Structures are given as structure tokens and as C-alpha cells.
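Supplementary Methods, section 5.1.

A reviewer requested that the exact input to the structure prediction be made available. We therefore reproduce it here, unchanged from the version used in the analyses.
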Amino acid sequence: MGRRFDSCHLHHLFFWIYILRIDHVAYRVKDREKTAQFFIDFFGYKKPKDLQEGFDIQFEDGTWAKCLVLEPPEKSDNSASWAMFDAFGLEYHMPVEIFVSSGCEGSIVSDWVKSHNGGNGGIHHIAYQVDSVERVVSEWKGKGFIEFASEAPIRCPGLVQIFTKPLEVSGIIYEFIERESQGFCADSVRNLMNSTKNNKF
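The structure derived from this sequence is encoded cell-by-cell as follows.
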């Protein structure tokens, strides 16, 4: 006889179908190059060949942030999927990407760094890749959670993203990201950063 699922099991099965994987972990820090070098030296991460210097974000008030993307050592230049297979044919996901940012004096990023970890910053958010950002937002709101940083998901070609506000239960922000391609969109990064401007912590 096949396994029977009660409503609780079905709910959790439904939830995990659309939570696909941890996509990236983002750090806001005082010295992005120093943080990046730590991950390169001790975890084997690398800068993408086409993004060795990262990219800049310009805000409307004249401030700026600089961002670095780090890829896990398992990722090849032409890798189209995060799924890999071990020697026994079992599928697994390669480690997450690391996103590191720092900002000029008075920027959203710099202000956040100053207020965390003695002015050194740290983990800002963890991003979960999902099959539908709108579906996640709808389900969370249906459970009474309405603390998202923007009224609607932020869109860029191939990407849909949204931040929660910082959660007291964990102390960090969660991002949901829906992908049709790999990489990041500078416009979306700026809009996501702007959505955190009025966070209380």
C-alpha cells in the first residue's frame, strides 16, 4: 500500500516543492576585498572571470555601493545548472554563491555596517531560490506574515526578487529569488538595497 499523507504532511510537501535551494548568502561589510579574500583563501571561492572587479551601484542621493560576487570552486565557466552528481550518480547542489558589498560614507550599506557587529557588518541576508516568488509571498501573507520590504516583487529580465524585513526571531533578512538565468542584475540590487533603507535593525 502506498504511503498516505495527512494534511500536515501535504502542507510541508507543498512548501518544499517551491523552496528549491539556498541561492546565495549576502554580506555587508566595511572592507569587501578583505572579506572576499577570506572566502577565496579559506573556502576556495573565486571571482567570475567577467566580474573580477565586481560592479557599482549608484543611489539617487549620490552615494554608492560596490559589490563583489564569489562563485564556489565547483562552478565551471559554462555551468548552466547548480545540480551536480557524485561518483555514485547521486545529485547534489554545489555550494552557494557569496555576495559581498560595502558602501561610501552615508550610504545604505555603510549605515547598516556601522550598526552591526561593532561596525564591521556581517551577514545581511540569506536568499532562497524558489519556483515562484509571488506564490511564496501569497502563502506567507496567508499565514499572517506581511513584513516584506517592498509592496511587490522586484523584477529584472530573468530574475524576480523580494526581501523580507529583518526578522526578530533570526536577526536577518530573507530573500526569495526566482531565476531563469544565473547572475545578478545591478538595477535589482539597487532597488533591493533601497527597500531596506527604513529597516529598524
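The chain has one domain: 20-195. These observations are discussed further in the main text.
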